[in-house]
Write a structure and sequence with these properties.
Blueprint lengths: L1 E3 L6 E7 L12 E6 L4 E5 L8 E3 L1 H5 L3 E5 L2 E5 L5 E5 L4 E4 L2 E4 L5 E3 L2 E5 H11 L4 E4 L4 E4 L2 H4 L43 E7 L9 E2 L2 E2 H17 L4 E5 L9 H12 L3 E10 L9 E6 L5 H10 L1 H5 L10 H13 L1 H16 L7 E7 L2 H4 L5 E8 L5 H5 L2 H19 L16
Parallel strand pairs: 15-18, 15-19, 19-22, 20-21
Antiparallel strand pairs: 1-6, 2-3, 2-14, 3-4, 5-12, 6-7, 7-8, 8-9, 9-10, 11-12, 13-14, 16-17, 20-22
């Protein structure tokens, strides 16, 4: 663990000399830190990953406290602001609010780099009384740290558990543990609803590969996950299907919304991936938003394919109703919560899955559009990979997957919903 803090009066202004647009790979910005005593320091940004990034130490020069523990990063700034993030993830917390950068922090040669966007975009907009960014001159005006009396807050410690609560990992070598009810349970106020949606089913097998059917993988994990969560106090579980039957995509979200009612709830859709490139493997979790990459659009198209059989389609640009749904989700803040849930799923899966961790992604999935609650679609692996495909049908793998996703749900409920007293936004924490 590393802590860094600067207590003396330092920066009056930070001037960034820029030679091109944010993503120009042939031009690296230079940061000029202008100190109160007139001393200037030049810090070159890195374009190593194709985007502008600064060493984490720049925040120390601005009076912030910096802490790193393994892949976790924490920044403590003025007015008690705590920014926490993880290497490789574009999502981060500003206090208790989950936000997203265009790029992810990374570590290179033992140095940690964070996207320049954090310093020139989020900080000035959210602490405008102390920081102001002028685009034309690329200058960040920063208050003297002495003006806000930055207090060093120890936000991370080696003793903090990486998985604070949730269902235990399977401690034995048997395919399925016999002690699923031995769990660590957080305190809940009222029921939380978990709707588990094993994808495909019946005449829709989903993706096929290596003798593995996606629908079987999804159902196997879903049944174990339901069994685990039903043992948790304050959790009520529903399954969109509990056998090999086909449930229309639109009906799944509608039914989930009806089951949830006015209570706090989440919707988890379980799937397995496939590609013609059989060397690809790993796991990824999606939330509902416009797809950004060809891969995200491809996965959404595959999972939405049953609609085409029924003569239906889904297109964010062509369907005005879908555009309304996406806008409404932003208004309700469900996208932020869904992104947080997806991040927790990825973190928990990474504890056992051989990987790689393909990260949190987004796309327009029909099954998520009318589930009016935080919702994610989990792709637990690639059936088309010759090694990973057979792994997906093993009882041990399905048990570990179910446990991981269940733990992610319990972690999520510690922060959600607002006003529940669980530490989420709206509690004033």
């Amino acid at each position: 663990m590393r802590y860094g803090t600067v207590g003396a009066a330092l920066a009056i202004a930070v001037t960034l000399a820029w030679a091109g647009p944010t993503r120009a790979q042939d031009a690296a910005p230079e940061v000029r830190v202008q100190r109160a005593d007139g001393v200037e320091e030049f810090v070159s940004a890195s374009m190593e990953r194709g985007f502008a990034a600064l060493q984490l130490g720049v925040f120390e020069r601005l009076g912030w406290s910096v802490a790193e523990v393994e892949t976790a990063i924490a920044l403590s700034g003025p007015h008690g602001v705590i920014v926490t993030m993880r290497l490789g993830s574009p999502f981060f917390f500003w206090n208790e609010e989950v936000l997203q950068l265009a790029d992810a922090p990374y570590r290179e040669d033992s140095e940690t780099f964070v996207p320049l966007q954090l310093l020139i975009d989020f900080v000035p907009r959210r602490i405008s009384e102390l920081y102001a960014f002028d685009g034309p001159t690329f200058t960040l005006q920063a208050a003297d740290p002495a003006d806000w009396g930055g207090t060093v807050v120890e936000t991370l410690s080696p003793s903090e558990p990486q998985t604070p609560t949730g269902i235990e990992q399977n401690p034995v070598a048997d395919p399925v543990a016999s002690d699923r009810d031995q769990v660590v349970t957080p305190e809940y106020e009222g029921d939380r609803i978990v709707i588990i949606d094993p994808g495909h089913g019946g005449g829709d097998p989903g993706t096929l590969g290596n003798g593995v059917r996606e629908k079987d993988v999804a159902l196997g994990i879903g049944l174990i996950m339901a069994d685990l969560l039903e043992r948790e106090p304050g959790i009520k579980v529903y399954l969109t299907r509990d056998d090999d039957t086909f449930v229309p995509i639109w009906d799944r979200g509608d039914q989930a919304t009806e089951w949830k009612g006015e209570q706090a709830g989440v919707f988890i859709s379980l799937h397995a991936n496939g590609l013609t490139n059989r060397s690809v493997r790993g796991f990824e979790t999606y939330f509902l938003s416009e797809a950004r990459t060809d891969h995200e659009r491809r996965v959404a198209a595959i999972e939405n394919a049953p609609l085409q059989v029924q003569g239906q389609s889904i297109d964010a640009d062509a369907e005005p109703d879908l555009g309304f749904i996406l806008r409404e989700l932003r208004t309700l803040d469900h996208q932020h919560w869904s992104a947080m849930l997806a991040e927790f799923v990825q973190e928990e899966m990474a504890n056992f899955h051989p990987g790689p961790n393909r990260g949190v992604k987004q796309g327009v999935f029909a099954v998520l559009t009318n589930a009016v609650m935080p919702s994610v679609l989990v792709e637990v692996g690639f059936v088309t990979n010759e090694d990973e495909g057979p792994l997906l049908v093993q009882e041990r793998f399905q048990d570990e997957s179910a446990r991981s996703i269940a733990r992610a749900v319990l972690r999520f409920f510690e922060r959600y919903p607002p006003g529940s007293g669980t530490g989420g936004p709206g509690d004033g924490v």
